[in-house]
Design goal:
Layout: E1 4-7, E2 11-17, E3 32-38, H1 40-49, E4 55-62, H2 65-76, E5 79-80, E6 84-87, E7 93-100, E8 103-109, H3 118-125, E9 133-136, H4 142-154, E10 158-161, H5 171-176, E11 179-180, H6 184-190, H7 195-201, E12 208-209, E13 214-219, E14 221-226, H8 238-251, H9 256-270, H10 283-286
Parallel strand pairs: 1-4, 1-9, 2-7, 4-5, 4-6, 9-10, 10-11
Antiparallel strand pairs: 2-3, 7-8, 12-13, 13-14
Helix pairs in contact: 1-8, 3-4, 8-9
The protein binds alpha-D-ribofuranose.
Alpha-D-ribofuranose (RIB) binds at residues 11, 13, 38-40, 43, 95, 106, 108, 139, 236-237, 239-240, 276.
Length: 287
C-alpha cells in the first residue's frame, strides 16, 4: 500500500445558517453562526485519514491563530503535517459559507493557500515514491497543479484531480491524471455540455459525482454506482469526503467499482452533521 498525499487548500470556514437570503443592499437576520476547519484540501485529507493511515497534507497556512487551529485539527485527525508551510505576515485562508434551503453558497479567500506554489511543493514530493497517490483540487494556484501533474507522470505516481471549484483545464492535464472527479456542474462546464461523450472518451478515469444519486463512469457502458440516501443536515464537504475515501480505496487496490461504492458510502455519512468535517465517517462507521 502506498501513501496518500493531499496537495491543496486548508482554511477556516465561517458559516451562517439562514432562512432568508438577502438581496443586494438588504440586511436580514440569520439563525446561527459557527466556525470550523475547512478548505477542500484539508477536508479531503481528514476524510482520508479517518479511514486510513499514511495520509500527508502539503499546503500552507498563515502565521495567525487560524493557522494554528488548522494544523492542530489536521494532527488531531491523524494527518501528517510535516510538509505544511507557515507563511509569515500572511493570513490563513477563509471560506465564507451561507447555508440556506439545504444547500451552501461559498466565497473563498485563499490568502496563504496562494503560497502553495510549485517551488514549495515539488521538493517535498521527493520524499514520496512511485505508486503513491496524490490528490489535487482547484483552491491552489493553477501552475502548481500543472507542475505536480507533470512530476507525478514522470515519477509513476497516481493522481486524483478533483477539479473543484471549476476553472478551465488544459487537455494535457486531463490526459495525464489517473482519475478526474468533477461533480455534475463542473463536468458540464469542463466538457461544454458533451458529458456522455466525455465519459466514453475517458473510460474508468472520468468519475462524475451526482450527490445522493451516486457517481457515474464509463466501462464498456455507463456505470452508475448508486449512492445512499441519508437525511441531509449540511452538504458542505460531501464531495471532499467522496474524494478522500476514493483515494483510500484506490490505494488499497480496490477495483474502481468497489472504490466508488466505498466513496459514495463515506460521502453519504458526511451530510448528516453540520460543518465540512463534522460528520465525516471513521472506518468503524462504514463496516
Ligand atoms: O468543499 C467544501 C469546502 O469548500 C469548504 O470547507 C470550504 O472551505 C470551501 O473551500
Amino acid at each position: 500500500m502506498g501513501k496518500i498525499i493531499i496537495i491543496g487548500s486548508a482554511s477556516i470556514d465561517l458559516v451562517v445558517k439562514t432562512d432568508i437570503l438577502p438581496n443586494a443592499g438588504e440586511t436580514v437576520m440569520g439563525n446561527t453562526f459557527f466556525t470550523n476547519p475547512g478548505g477542500k484540501g484539508a477536508n479531503q485529507a481528514v476524510a482520508a485519514a479517518r479511514l486510513s493511515d499514511q495520509v500527508y497534507m502539503i499546503g500552507a497556512v498563515g502565521d495567525d491563530d487560524n493557522g494554528k487551529a488548522i494544523i492542530d485539527n489536521l494532527k488531531e485527525n491523524n494527518v501528517d503535517t510535516s510538509y505544511m508551510d507557515i507563511i509569515e505576515n500572511e493570513k490563513s485562508g477563509t471560506a465564507h459559507i451561507t447555508l440556506y434551503d439545504d444547500d451552501n453558497r461559498i466565497i473563498v479567500v485563499p490568502a496563504a493557500n496562494n503560497f502553495v506554489t510549485a517551488e514549495k511543493v515539488l521538493p517535498k514530493l521527493e520524499h514520496f515514491a512511485k505508486g503513491d497517490i496524490i490528490v489535487l483540487q482547484h483552491e491552489i494556484p493553477e501552475e502548481t497543479i500543472k507542475a505536480v501533474v507533470n512530476y507525478a507522470t514522470n515519477n509513476d505516481m497516481k493522481v486524483i484531480l478533483n477539479p473543484a471549484p471549476y476553472r478551465s483545464l488544459d487537455q494535457d492535464i486531463i490526459d495525464k491524471v489517473t482519475w478526474i472527479t468533477p461533480n455534475e456542474t463542473e463536468s458540464e462546464l469542463l466538457f461544454e455540455g458533451r458529458v456522455d461523450e466525455a465519459l466514453e472518451t475517458y473510460p474508468r478515469k472520468l468519475i462524475i459525482t451526482q450527490g445522493a444519486k451516486g457517481a457515474v463512469f464509463y466501462s464498456e457502458t455507463q456505470q452508475l454506482i448508486a449512492g445512499y440516501e441519508k437525511e441531509v443536515v449540511d452538504t458542505t464537504g460531501a464531495g471532499d469526503t467522496f474524494n478522500g475515501a476514493l483515494a483510500v480505496a484506490l490505494n488499497e487496490n480496490k477495483s474502481l467499482e468497489e472504490a466508488v461504492q466505498f466513496a459514495n458510502l463515506a460521502g453519504s455519512f458526511s451530510v448528516t452533521g453540520l460543518g465540512a468535517q463534522g460528520a465525516m465517517p471513521y472506518s468503524k462507521d462504514l463496516e
